[in-house]
Specification:
The complex is a heterodimer of chains A (166) and B (31). With 166 residues, chain A is an alpha/beta fold. Chain A has a single domain, classed as 3-Layer(aba) Sandwich (Rossmann fold), CATH 3.40.50.450. Chain A contains six helices and six strands; from the N terminus they run βαβαβαβαβαβα. In chain A, strands 4-3-2-1-5-6 form a six-stranded parallel β-sheet, sandwiched between helices. Chain B is of the alpha+beta class. Chain B has one domain. Chain B has one helix and one strand. The two termini of chain B are 15 Å apart. The chains are: A alpha/beta (166), B alpha+beta (31).
């Protein structure tokens, strides 16, 4: 095991808030924690949903926030207007690669297919040694419990890496 | 490789301890 101070964390989460208010509370709590501890937030650049909640809280706590958004989403006026830095890229592939380049750890909050895709691509890159970012899930109100059970099942089936620390 | 927690501070602490390089390690911070 290694202990490395985190300086920049990529957060993947939904562009909606979901139905449970706990999701937005958790997003804000994470953003606030990052800001208060001087850890840069790298995220999808939106101002709506959980993305907006995590960014607003980080900014409110005095944190550095970098958004990476696609041209298509920016044209739909979904970009956050008050970030210290907003990078606009052409494709979702470029967005994921840029967010990985800018961060040294990855966190997933509740979200949908886009969030899942982004997070598990980052996990795969870690597994393959494409990058060395540790990956974590903030399990809000049991949202990820079924997924974590499935990951355990996949491990038991011999299809996914072993777990430790439990 | 995947840490889990219900609290942001616990999760960030776990990520700082996770060795992300190697044979694919899944850690669990708070279960």
């Amino acid at each position: 095991m290694t202990t490395t101070p985190l300086r920049s964390v990529a957060v993947y989460c939904g562009s909606s808030t979901g139905l449970d208010p706990a999701f937005a509370d958790a997003a804000a709590g994470l953003g606030r924690h990052l800001g208060e501890h001087g850890v840069r937030l790298v995220y999808g650049g939106g101002h709506v949903g959980l993305m907006g909640a995590v960014a607003d809280a980080a900014l409110g706590a005095g944190g550095e926030v970098v958004g990476v958004i696609t041209e298509a989403l920016a044209e739909r006026e979904l970009a956050h207007d008050h970030l210290g830095r907003l990078e606009v890229v052409a494709t979702m592939h470029e967005r994921k690669a840029r967010m990985a380049d800018l961060s040294d750890a990855v966190i997933m909050l509740p979200g949908g297919f886009g969030t899942f895709d982004e997070f598990f691509e980052a996990v795969t890159w870690t597994q393959l040694g494409v990058h060395a970012s540790p990956c974590g899930i903030l399990d809000v109100a049991g949202y990820f419990a079924p997924l974590l059970r499935f990951l355990d099942d996949a491990t038991r089936a011999g299809s996914s890496p072993r777990r430790i620390g439990r | 490789m995947i840490a889990t927690a219900t609290d942001p501070g616990a999760l960030l602490a776990a990520l700082g301890r996770v060795d992300a390089v190697g044979d694919g390690v899944l850690a669990d911070a708070q279960r």
